[in-house]
Design brief:
Rossmann fold
Length: about 260
């Protein structure tokens, strides 16, 4: 089922007030056999999608509400059409049903229920991506972006299936309550040979209210230094001195990093 999304802009003259709909995307959904529920997502197609036969890379962004969708469309449109810094792409915003369940790969002091990250990961790999590939013209290139709790999931996805996506963007994705779990994942990550290049871009704000003592920054510093030593991994941790939780510029800088020539990264 697809539902058109639009923004209405009002134009005012001395005599006429009228509205004009600007279509920026539409909603789609599939029933998930893995999750046993219907999952909705928002789709933004490239401007020339209907006027060509060209396939496009796909950016999958987690926490897909309308506010995040508007922010993502604004950022990608700027980079694609004004800066001409990245290729045109399809944007898929995955809406939440039970965010804590889907994003958490393990139990913590604040999350004591059964973790659902493995099932959510299966949903993305086995159901959502095949649906998108069969419904829209896509290339093989895929990107995954998460923020805050969904950035933890993004890092988890990177460590357990680094070849599933070409690039990962994790905005404010610290893991203070499950550090040992991620250390074990990282140790296992280094035991598996990486045969293809994968990018990961992470961000952290120095005034993040969740990190008053700097513990998350230290975790991310240590994690970034370690994974960048692995073959075929291109990584960067960007620190924002005057920004808080989930810096607004994270997606912008992440996409610019991914599509910069390797020797400039």
């Amino acid at each position: 089922m697809k539902t058109i999304l639009s923004l209405t802009f009002l134009f005012l003259s001395t005599t006429i007030l009228f509205g004009q709909d600007i279509k920026i995307g539409f909603k789609d959904s599939i029933h998930s056999s893995v999750l046993h529920e219907s999952r909705k997502f928002i789709v933004k197609l490239p401007r020339d999608y209907n006027n060509s036969y060209k396939p496009y890379p796909v950016l999958y962004r987690l926490d897909g509400d309308l506010d995040m969708f508007t922010e993502t469309v604004g950022t990608t449109n700027r980079l694609i059409y004004l800066d001409e810094a990245i290729p045109d792409m399809i944007v898929i915003m995955i809406e939440n049903t039970n965010r804590n369940r889907d994003m958490m790969p393990t139990n913590t002091s604040f999350f004591t229920s059964e973790p659902g990250a493995d099932n959510f990961k299966r949903f993305i790999e086995e159901e959502l991506v095949p649906h998108v590939n069969s419904s829209y013209r896509t290339t093989k290139e895929k990107l995954l972006c998460g923020q805050s709790l969904s950035a933890i999931f993004t890092i988890y996805y990177f460590l357990t299936s680094p070849n599933s996506f070409d690039s990962f963007i994790a905005c404010s994705g610290g893991f203070p309550d499950c550090e040992d779990f991620f250390i074990d994942l990282t140790n296992n990550f280094f035991k598996v040979k990486q045969n293809r290049s994968t990018n990961i871009f992470m961000t952290h704000g120095m005034t993040d209210f969740l990190d008053p003592e700097g513990a998350i920054k230290k975790q991310l510093d240590d994690f970034s230094r370690r994974i960048e030593s692995k073959e075929n991994i291109v990584s960067k941790l960007k620190i924002y001195e005057d920004e808080g939780h989930v810096p607004f510029q994270s997606l912008y800088h992440g996409l610019r990093f991914i599509y910069t020539l390797p020797n400039d990264k």
